[in-house]
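so im writing up the methods section and need the DUF1343 domain-containing protein record in one place, dumping it here so i stop losing it
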Amino acid sequence: MKGLLVIAISFMLAGCASTSQPAKSAPEVKTGIEVLRDNGFKELQGKRVGLVTNPTGVDRNLVSTVDILANAEGVELVALYGPEHGVRGNVHAGGHVDSSVDPATGLPVYSLYGATRKPTKEMLDSIDVIVYDIQDNGCRSFTYISTLGLLMEAAAEYDKELMVLDRPNPLGGNKVEGCYVEPGYFSFVSQFRIPYLYGLTVGELATLLNEEGLVVGEKGDKEPFKCRLTVIPMEGWSRDMLYADTKLPWVLPSPHVPQPESAIYYPASGILGELGYMSIGVGYTLPFQLFAAPWIDAEKLAAALNGRGIEGVRFRPLYIQPFYSAHAGENLGGVQMYVTDFDKVELSAIQFQVLEAVAELYPEKKVFDNANEGRYRMFDQVCGTNYIRETFAKNNRYADIQEYWNKDVAAFKELSAKYYLYQ
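--- predicted struct ---
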């Protein structure tokens, strides 16, 4: 498979991050903005355009979609809209994005990550079409697709066209994991009734949401609706491609997703990270790639995890001192994970298998006997249910939740295949 991740033994001994095999020869991948540009922007001619983007909205030469559309003949770019982190990426994770004026273009910038997350009628009055161009990470809890859902809702309500400029799913188009979001657990980190990993590009996801009536508001309590949706597909992308295979530059979509591989590790530890129970590398140089705590013996945990024979991943002992976030400034022992077979690994299961091993080695440190109960709600919202937490807490065994966690995978794969734009 293209983009297969392998362990480089010499790098492991040196304590370096995991690496990929050199990307195999593949057709040049053109993102939606490049296809739109190469076709003369014909879908936007004569229209007043509002652009929702961030620093990931670039072409292969790192030219911003803002600048491309601002200078496109026959296209009138009149407004910008800032999701989490802002149009220019100048806001830290979770920080409110303020409405402002973009200094480079002089255009108004409306915040979609503050007091207002869904565009108001006034924000959209001056435009004919909302263009969305943001690199996703393929995981339900990333807020950009939640912003997309609210854009779709506003576009339907105010009769505006919505255009999605498609980009690669960095996890490829085949990895699907996790259960659907259940009533009571819809939120900005789980806004749709889809699995945790959904195996679609953002253009495919938007089409599925629109056609299946899955955009039903942040609380999941609104009647389904459809907007006037246009997707500008990529050229040259296929479902077996990881991001390295595209040969496109990676622009970090979030400060803690600095490399394409970060998107692979995000679902392997990010759910656990919501509890603040141990370090997952956020606040250190390996975000989402490790598990560490002051009370962990690194060698023992690595041996215990490798002894389990978990498919597609290996662990090495390491010691760190995080600069910030969980256990900042403390000396920690733990493990760094290396995905060795992307096809076989169940990414989201890794964190639960680590918690199982920790409970066996350190019975007094079982996660839900020690985690901050104030974080349980966020943990449940990211999982899309409270069943995972409550059931795992009884015996601290992944086997107890495995079937439930993946109960919706087969059904979603069958449903989503109808909306594939790529093979």
